[in-house]
Amino acid sequence: MQTPAPFEYERATSVEHALALLERYGPESRVVAGGHSLLPMMKLRIASADCLIDINDLTDLSYIRVDGDHLAIGAMTRHAQVLASAVLGEHYRIFHDAERVIADPVVRNRGTVGGSLCQADPSEDLSAVCSALGATCVIRSSSGTRTVPAREFHEGPYETAVGPAEMLVEVRVPIRSGVGSAYQKVERRAGDWAVAAVGAFVTLSDGVVSDVGIGLTAVGAPHFCAPEAEDSLRAKEPTEANLAAAAALAAASARPQTDQRGPDDYKRHLAGELTLRALRRSVARATGQEA
Question: Quick check: pTM over 0.85?
């Protein structure tokens, strides 16, 4: 049986307590909530921690609400809550699309939004969603809070902008009018990590694309996004030709690697095809053609 290296364990009773524990135990301490990614990696000794700080009691970080012109999602919000949220479904159906293909009910009942983003797995679904939507990550330390755009939050595989004595506490998504959004994924089996996946949103004004976001995962796109593809669509009509041209640019921005999930050229093809499908569905939702 595989077991992790020895570690200390503390259960935080508040955000302030969790931050104090992070400071006490130093940069090799880790926070844990659902633990579905961190604990298996520790068992394989791919990851280690001097201390695990359990934050499951921090229920004040579990919420989904409208806050002015943004949607605010607490870092301890479970995947199942995201899937069930009428507020998120009203504004961005991409969240429901993505959550339906994340793992299985057991994982969705325990896994958290903050844990998924902070794990920074190159194949993680919500990272692509947040990059597509232009979300902002709120990071807290004992000295205050700071914000980091989702497109700057991931600094590399399994690396984020969260410092040693900091915690991600909230994700903020701007509310847009006239928006449609969608998520498309190819996986080897239900609930698996993506072979490739793409999320998108489109806002329309007078029949023209006024704003657009494209997020890609599992295909090596820098910061999970495709800015050149987005730029190619702005101020244009969402015709099939224009959507296809943007999809081709998204595929060109991908840097996939051949692995057990498939060869690089197949993944690049999927990046383009899934981008096209996500954009088509986003436009259909924005124009009311899909109920």
Answer: yes
